[in-house]
Each structure stands twice: as structure tokens, then as C-alpha cells.
Amino acid sequence: MKYLNSSNVDFLATYLTLPILNGKALSDIRNTNCSDAFKQTYEGISVEGVKNKLGPKMRVQYSLYVGDEKDIIHTIWLRVPENITVFEVMQLAQVADNKYKFQWKKMGEKIYIYDIDNITNDFENGQFWLLYLGQNKESMEHLIESPDKVTVKDGSQIIMWYKRAHI
């Protein structure tokens, strides 16, 4: 073990030794589904679970705005169960249409959306995906809460807007 902590470590020896120290063999890799390693998991309900929720349904609108002047707008209407979060709506939308495919990261207790439709946050230009929610255009409010903590109501409009953030 001292040898592994020293600066003269042979990487090949380490690569071959670590599985043995963990009580594994290289043949154990056949039991590993490597494609699952790339999927993001979320501790909440799965997309199938959301679709199969019993109870009343409601309609929500989910839009993507790109640019400070809304140069590109994509909108989708979804029938969803009551008591659904913004994050779950986003998951359903990405299953319905690839345009809404997003990437996220959990930092502490907050989910951070950093890429939608292959448009990634641009720190140099100060452009980020920002969450807005409201019942109509006049009531749109910028939210800083985590998307998995915000529940939507019937007729809600969810907007993820890629624009310059003013601090």
C-alpha cells in the first residue's frame, strides 16, 4: 500500500492492482452495463412514473427563448398530472421532442440547468439559461429556486430563456 502512495507509482500496476484490492476481477466488467454510467439519475420520480401518475391532469406551456430579443422561440403544450415540478415537465418535454433535451447538474440542494438543445451557458458573454414562470406574459417572474422545488399550476407558462444575465 505504501508503494501506491509513493511518487514512483507504475500506472499499469496500479490499474491492475486496484480491482484486486476492491475484491473484484477484470472479468466482473461483463456484469456492468456501461451505457447506464452515462445516464443522469435523479432521486425524484422517473418520466414513466410521471406519465403513469393517477389523478386529474392539467395543461402547461413550456417555452424556450433564445437571445435577449427572443430571436428563437420554441413552445410545447403538455398534459401533465397535478402537483408536478418544473423539472419533471422539462423531463417530459425532452422525451416528447429532442429540441428540449437538456443537461443539468446537482450542486448542493439545487439543480442547475446548463445546456438546452446543445446551447450551453456562456460565462464569457454572461449568457445563461434562466427560469421564468407565470400564468400569462404580464405575470412572468424570474425564479432562482431549483426547478425540482417549483410546482406548476393548471395553465402555467414555463420559460427557459437563454439571455444575458444582469447582476
From TrEMBL:
One of its GO terms (molecular function) is cobalamin binding. It comes from the Eukaryota. GO terms for cellular component: extracellular space. InterPro entries: Cobalamin_Transport. GO terms for biological process: cobalamin transport. This is Uncharacterized protein.
